[in-house]
């Protein structure tokens, strides 16, 4: 055989194969252990930083609580407001306030609620809208 051909033929002996397998498994195991140690260290660092930040916040809050003066009594609410939304019978004022607050948060300060009323929804075949959507989604053609 020529010397070039001998260099291209891989070593198929049992010792070489077992050495490669053991080295590969060892490298994988060591890298996994290294990753575990790195993530454990990151977890400790982050949790200690969060604890310090939380401790600092609580100290600031307790210090600021001691410095706050007592608030003035709240003014009495006006009986009727021209800008108040019209409320249908059966909807409590708390529900109206919650809906108005949600709209103000989502739409911004410029939004005006003019009326709040119940809407009667007629269900097709007695199903709720989510069930109707599921039936539509599962039965539509491809």
Query: How do the helices and strands follow one another from N- to C-terminus?
Result: HHEHEH
Shape annotation:
flat
Strand content: under 5%
Radius of gyration: 35 Å
Instruction: Describe the main β-sheet briefly.
Output: 2 strands, parallel
Number of helices: 4
Extract low-pLDDT stretches: none
Question: How far apart, in Å, are the first and last alpha carbons?
Answer: 64 Å
Mean pLDDT: 79
**How are strands sequenced across the largest beta sheet?**
1-2
Fraction in helix: 55-70%
Structural class: mainly alpha
Tell me the number of structural domains. Answer: 2
The total of beta strands comes to 2
Structural overview:
The protein is an all-alpha fold and 142 residues long. The protein has two domains: 11-67; 86-139, no CATH class. It has four helices and two strands, in the order ααβαβα. It has helices spanning 3-8, 14-67, 93-107, 129-139; strands at 86-87, 115-116. A two-stranded parallel sheet has the order 1-2. The longest helix has 54 residues, at 14-67.
Keyphrases for this structure?
142 residues; 61% helix; flat; 4 helices; 2 domains
Would you kindly provide a brief summary of this structure?
By secondary structure, the protein is an all-alpha fold. The chain has helices at about 5-10, 15-65, 95-105, 130-140, and strands spanning about 85, 115.
């Amino acid at each position: 055989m020529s010397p070039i051909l001998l260099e291209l033929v891989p070593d198929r002996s049992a010792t070489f194969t077992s050495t490669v397998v053991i080295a590969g498994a060892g490298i994988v195991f060591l890298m996994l252990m290294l990753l575990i140690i790195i993530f454990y260290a990151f977890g400790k660092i982050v949790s200690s930083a969060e604890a310090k930040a939380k401790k600092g916040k609580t100290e600031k809050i307790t210090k600021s609580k001691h410095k706050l003066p007592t608030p003035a009594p709240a003014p009495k609410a006006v009986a009727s407001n021209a800008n108040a939304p019209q409320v249908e019978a059966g909807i409590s004022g708390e529900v109206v306030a919650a809906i108005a607050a949600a709209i103000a948060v989502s739409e911004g300060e410029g939004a005006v609620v003019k009326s709040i009323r119940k809407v009667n929804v007629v269900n097709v075949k007695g199903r709720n809208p989510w069930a109707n959507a599921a039936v539509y989604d599962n039965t539509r053609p491809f």
